[in-house]
Description:
The structure is a single chain. By secondary structure, the chain is an all-alpha fold. It has one domain: N-utilizing Substance Protein B Homolog, Chain A. It is 71% helix and 0% strand. It has six helices and no strands. It is globular. InterPro entries: NusB-like_sf, NusB_fam, NusB_RsmB_TIM44.
Amino acid sequence: MKTKYDPRHQKRRETVQILFAESFTKQPELSNMAKEILSNKENFDIQIIQAAPAWPIEKLNKIDLAILRLAIYELDKKSIPPKVVIDEAVELAKEFGADNSSSFINGVLGTIYKRQLGDVEAIYSEGTI
């Protein structure tokens, strides 16, 4: 059973905190996961912009942005079930974000996940796989 003391959840919390701090000032030490996320930040931001066109990146709450980037990174890796990734992101939003952060993050990630599913379905229907 998942708890807030689960080591995987703790690692996500730490990564979100690093990403959040990095949005204000360069951090002296970054975890490997944070480095990978930051190196792909532009790609993740494009996905966020496409999923939430009414919300410009620069207007998003910095903690929400950090949570979204972590979750998209995990969705792209495909080593964790998407529903787990989304659930974890929503829990982090409840813990760190504003009142409406959890529903916003759930909606954005749901849209991104559906697009990823659509891409896979398109590949299958084209006979590429």
